[in-house]
Amino acid sequence: MIRTDVLVIGAGPVGLFAVHQLGIIGLKAEVVDNLDKVGGQCIELYPDKPIYDIPGIPECTGEKLTKNLLEQIKPFNINFHLNERVQEISKEKENWKITTNKNKIFISPAIIIAGGVGSFEPRKFSIKNIEKFENKNIFYSVKDKNFFKNKKVCIFGGGDSALDWAIELSKISEVVLLHRRNEFRGTQHSSELLKKLEKEGKLKIKTPFQLDSIEGDSNVKSIRVKNDNGEIEKITTDYLLGFFGLIMKLGPIAEWGLNLEKKTIPVDTENFQTNKKGIFAIGDICTYPGKLKLILSGFHEGALAARACFKLARPNEKYRFEFTTTSKSMQERLGVKKVD
Ligand SMILES: Cc1cc2nc3c(=O)[nH]c(=O)nc-3n(C[C@H](O)[C@H](O)[C@H](O)COP(=O)(O)OP(=O)(O)OC[C@H]3O[C@@H](n4cnc5c(N)ncnc54)[C@H](O)[C@@H]3O)c2cc1C
Hints:
The structure is a single chain. This protein is α/β, with parallel strands linked by helices. The strands form seven sheets. The chain has a five-stranded parallel β-sheet with strand order 6-3-2-10-22, with helices on one face. It has a five-stranded parallel β-sheet with strand order 12-19-13-14-15, covered by helices on one side. Strand 17 and strand 18 form a beta hairpin. Helix 1 packs parallel to helix 3, helix 1 crosses helix 6 and helix 4 packs parallel to helix 5. It starts with a strand and ends in a 7-residue tail after the last helix. The relative contact order is 0.17. Bound molecules: flavin-adenine dinucleotide.
């Protein structure tokens, strides 16, 4: 069980900046995100695209913005609980009890939901009873490439993730790349490199093929794949990796008894609190008259929600407004001023 001042749900740009705002006023935060990395939409959907409307930064990519936000919260040594979805929230006396899908429990007087458009989840193979092989022989992301070393791996998909992992794993594994179309959607450079590797016998490419069935009882032994003419081929394999993109689901957030308006959470703009005391919503997931789904709006929302959390986490202390330029305590927390 982890006790904290504030639990932040979502490590997108808005959740990350909220952590900064909490940190400078002396509150400890833990962050949970369903994805295997921080950055939310900036990292998942447009890491290489330039953003032109972050105040004071004329141009930066989604990836660069995420790196900068992480750098800015480094002094606070935040624990990120990645690959974990917040599943349940319940009241426990003055606190909230928050449970993830991996049964991790947090106890906190305040929760900031910075869940964006909901949790991103991988699009999965559409084969019946496939779940029994998931996280054993079938994966939708790679955490440690060495897990696949010297194994037979079938990689499905035509986008950058499928192509990049086929190239990377071909160095250590026996790779077959399968895609339902003849053309790949990934970069031209990756497509050309794959063809070169195929010519050199470093991997196999099978298009246009889709998964038809899986053979094996407790473990996958082989798969059958089908092409557009209905022809079936059998491939023996140890692992299947599927990279079919992500679906965005509001997911469990919809079950927490919060008021919802078109898959967003209405908030009070004074402090970004929802209809439940101690639960705040900021960033793309919140709504109020005039809401702009922009990163800069989310930063402002996080600043106000953080101050409201202070009152819950430190009920016996008085919050004092301070500037980072002149506040000794804020500078100490940021590690830029030595403690006397
Ligand atoms: C192509 C594109 C270009 C864009 N360009 C700009 C731009 O130029 N300028 C601009 O200001 N904005 C832009 N945006 C919008 C901007 O990216 C969003 O406003 C911003 O990402 C919202 O941040 P967020 O932190 O609220 O949510 P997100 O970035 O969506 O992050 C939310 C995170 O919460 C996690 N999450 C959700 N539910 C749970 C749960 N139950 N448990 C655990 N984790 C959960 C998700 O996995 C996700 O990582 C663009 C968006 C797109 C798609």
